[in-house]
Design goal:
The structure holds two protein chains of two kinds. The longest helix of chain A has 36 residues, at 82-117. Chain A is built from four helices and no strands. In chain A, helix 1 packs antiparallel against helix 2 (45-66) and helix 3 (82-117) packs antiparallel against helix 4. Chain A is mostly helical. By secondary structure, chain B is an all-alpha fold. Helices cover 79% and strands 0% of the residues of chain B. Chain B has 22 helices and no strands. The mean pLDDT of chain B is 91. Classes of the chains: A mainly alpha, B mainly alpha.
């Protein structure tokens, strides 16, 4: 069975995030070489790398949860019957979904704030709002992944 | 002092959530945000929720983490680990238990370019396990040695756990990396000694194999050169201030990626897998970091750490008694909790306590020494039952070896770990000397 569309989407975002990490590596190499060979680093390199990596990391978040990468301590619960473990999963994902929705809302408010305030990075003046936009988008997708997991677990509980 | 009660109650709630397997990041975020809202008001909490996720992720110092994870993943999806293992094998394989010793050597060398223990253990397992099986090594020894060897991945720099500790405690990452080198070497020798004893106590667990000819031994060293070069470039470059830790990690990722490509193994499929694995691990770490930010903001407001310090201080214990108690708590917690979460939850409480005691060292040296101790204790948590994630990962890769055997095979390495902890406590210079602190 092919992956559901939400998983495929999360995967593509993860690839995009990985691509951004590679870009950050490349910018660093150019900057370090420039600094020592030509006494001319990439202007605002720290800001640039920080922002590129930040967007990259945000793009990772939905994928991590989609593949069950957000670890919990399963020692105490591993002895429970499958039925109860599924119920726990359901509760956790519901709570997780609520928090992800809350964060989407708040980061979205932050986005609106940065956009209207026109805040830019200190040295090279890149607007902050677009990075906030990616953060908000990732949080929204994270919420969708949580809801998808809730639906999947409900399906499993029904099928018992 | 009502805040102490609330602090304790929410800490207890968080532990309950962790016990019922709520993801650790969410447990911390939920309790931290709740506590912050109750103490500072809901309006400030709303502002914090809008700001913290981005400000935590967009942090130049923290970008070391995804870059080091990527570096380790490049190495894991290449033949570098295999070459390192073959090299160690050519030199020590003909001793009794020699293939296990070679595994430790391979793990130590691999740990010099990989900052994660599970990645180190799993990479080496796919290489060393078939060899040890072929020569009749017992399931207990072969899985035990891989689970323990994997922990060298986080002890020998670069180390993701040390990056987290450095940022959490505002200590120099360069100092911490250097401080971990001697304990890393002690661990490597200690594990080899543990094998030496093990194969004499349990005859037939690790038979000797035919010695490699000298020409092959010398030739096998070729693999070590580039890996050592990357290690010294990254760690040396960071220490001497040639570049920042982030730049060092980027240079290391590029060099490791290049080497992995040149030596073979890392191709299109490997790059894809390396990126997805990097995404999964990085996402997990950052979500925990976001959760921890709320938790530590709440902790600071509740003044729980200060309350605990005062209480312990009032007991009149000697500094070493307090330290031993903390190490004891860590060993217990490590059995049931993930190392990263354990550090984020407890270090903000315990480090101020330790810094308030007199060990005859500067605060900086004490913080670095304590950091290495915490790191070693986290390592132990990776191999102790009931969680012992490394043992589970390795055991799942070894067909037909019962879990009980794997945990039995861990015992000599566990003892070796305890000896090392005692050594580091008794002789703090094992950590502070290379870092140039006192």
């Amino acid at each position: 069975m092919p992956d559901p569309i939400i998983i495929r989407l999360a995967k593509w975002l993860a690839y995009a995030g990985g691509g951004l990490l590679l870009v950050a590596v490349a910018v660093t190499l150019v900057s370090v070489t420039g600094r020592y060979a030509f006494a001319q680093p990439v202007p605002g390199d720290y800001e640039l790398i920080e922002m590129i990596c930040a967007v990259g990391v945000f793009l990772f978040l939905p994928y991590t949860h989609a593949v069950g990468g957000n670890i919990g301590a399963d020692f105490f619960t591993s002895g429970l019957p499958v039925h109860w473990r599924r119920r726990l999963d359901l509760t956790h994902d519901l709570v997780f979904a609520l928090i992800a929705v809350l964060l989407t809302w708040r980061v979205g408010a932050g986005f609106a704030n940065k956009y209207s305030g026109g805040e830019v990075s200190i040295l090279i003046g890149i607007p902050i709002w677009w990075a906030f936009g990616f953060a908000c988008l990732s949080m929204a997708l994270l919420a969708v992944v949580c809801i998808w997991r809730v639906v999947r677990t409900i399906g499993e509980l029904r099928g018992e | 002092m009502a805040n102490l009660g609330l602090g304790g109650a929410l800490f207890a709630l968080m532990m309950v959530l962790i016990v019922v397997r709520m993801p650790i990041a969410i447990s911390m975020l939920l309790c931290g945000a709740l506590g912050f809202g109750l103490l500072a008001g809901w309006q400030p909490l709303m502002a914090m929720l809008a700001d913290v996720p981005y400000s935590r992720v967009a942090n130049y110092e923290l970008t070391v983490i995804p870059l080091f994870v990527l570096m380790g993943q490049f190495a894991a999806h290449s033949t570098i680990g295999s070459s390192l293992y073959q090299s160690a094998r050519a030199w020590v394989g003909h001793f009794r238990g020699g293939l296990a010793m070679a595994t430790i050597g391979g793990c130590a060398a691999f740990g010099a370019i990989c900052g994660s223990s599970v990645a180190t253990g799993a990479t080496m397992a796919s290489i060393a396990m078939p060899e040890m099986r072929r020569y009749g090594y017992s399931g207990a020894l072969s899985t035990g040695v891989l689970a323990a060897g994997g922990t060298l991945g986080i002890l020998i720099p670069p180390s993701i756990i040390l990056v987290i500790y450095a940022i959490l405690t505002e200590q120099s990452l360069a100092h911490l990396f250097l401080a971990a080198i001697i304990p890393g070497l002690i661990a490597t020798v200690g594990y080899a000694l543990a094998i030496w004893v093990y194969v004499r106590v349990v005859p037939g667990a690790g038979p000797a194999v035919e010695p490699a000819p000298w020409r092959e031994r010398v030739r096998s060293l070729g693999a070590i050169g580039p890996v050592a070069a990357i290690f010294f470039l990254v760690i040396g470059g960071i220490y001497f201030g040639v570049f920042t830790p982030t730049e060092g990690a980027a240079v290391g990722a590029a060099a490791t990626g290049g080497l992995a490509w040149a030596m073979g193994g890392l191709r299109k499929e490997g790059v894809r897998k390396a990126i997805l694995e990097t995404a999964k691990v990085t996402g997990m770490i950052y979500l925990i970091l976001i959760g921890a930010e709320f938790y530590s903001a709440f902790l600071a407001l509740s003044q729980l750490p200060q309350g605990l310090s005062q209480w312990i201080g009032g007991l009149g214990w000697s500094p070493y008694a307090v330290l031993l108690m903390i190490v004891g708590i860590y060993l217990l917690l490590g059995c049931v909790m993930d190392g990263l979460a354990m550090i984020l939850v407890t270090v903000p409480v315990f480090l101020p306590l330790v810094l308030g005691l007199d060990f005859g060292m500067s605060p900086e040296a004490t913080a670095v020494w304590f950091g290495i101790l915490v790191l070693v204790v986290v390592e132990v948590g990776l191999i102790t039952p009931p969680i012992g994630i490394n043992v589970y990962v390795i055991n799942s890769m070894a067909e037909g070896v019962p879990m009980r055997d794997s945990f039995r095979g861990i015992v000599p390495f566990f003892v070796s770990d305890l000896v090392r902890i005692a050594l580091i406590i008794a002789v703090p210079t094992t950590t502070t000397w290379l870092a140039g602190l006192s």
